[in-house]
Amino acid sequence: MAETADITLLLDAAREGDRGALDRVLATLYQELHTMARRQLAGQHGQTLDATALVHEAYLKLIGRREAQFDDRAHFFAYAASAMRSVVVDYARQRLAQKRGGDLHRVTELPDDVEGGLRLDEDTLGLDTALTKLAAVDPRLAQVVELRYFAGLSELEIAALLERSERSIRRDWQKARLFLLASLKDS
């Protein structure tokens, strides 16, 4: 609990413009971010995007946005998940453009179990588009998807982070999956 209080104090200082405080937050949470990235990139051997590169690219996005403010640890991780999503999507776009000239195919599945890691391909691009639509309809559901799919957190971890019940997170995940599947099939 002391670490959470320290993180909150550092986040408060970072919000007031203390760049050193943000650096200390990132250094403190680096291992957690790296674990999230490694979990998500599992099975992507031979790719140029590894867990360390993903964390570093996400870090650059985190510090590069002046308007980024983190109210608490949950907000920080939500923003980190969004930054990781952005990096993964950019990487998939670049890879697809090099490989096939940017052709996309129709995505018709969204795995319930994301333990196997993200696929860095056109599926990720289709999911990103559908997730953007979901965020316009229900930002809370989109946040659960980002934390689960792009940050690789379990329902229990998301519940603790967002201070909600695991059951409500499970329901949100199921609702979000249905919305995303419908969006993916319609595209």
From TrEMBL:
It comes from the Bacteria. Pfam families: Sigma70_ECF. InterPro entries: HTH_Sigma70_ECF-like, RNA_pol_sigma-70-like, RNA_pol_sigma-70_dom, RNA_pol_sigma70_ECF-like, RNA_pol_sigma_r2, RNA_pol_sigma_r3/r4-like, WH-like_DNA-bd_sf. Residues 5-183 form the RNA polymerase sigma-70 ECF-like HTH domain. Keywords: Sigma factor, Transcription, Transcription regulation. Belongs to the sigma-70 factor family. ECF subfamily. This is Sigma-70 family RNA polymerase sigma factor. It comes from Lysobacter stagni.
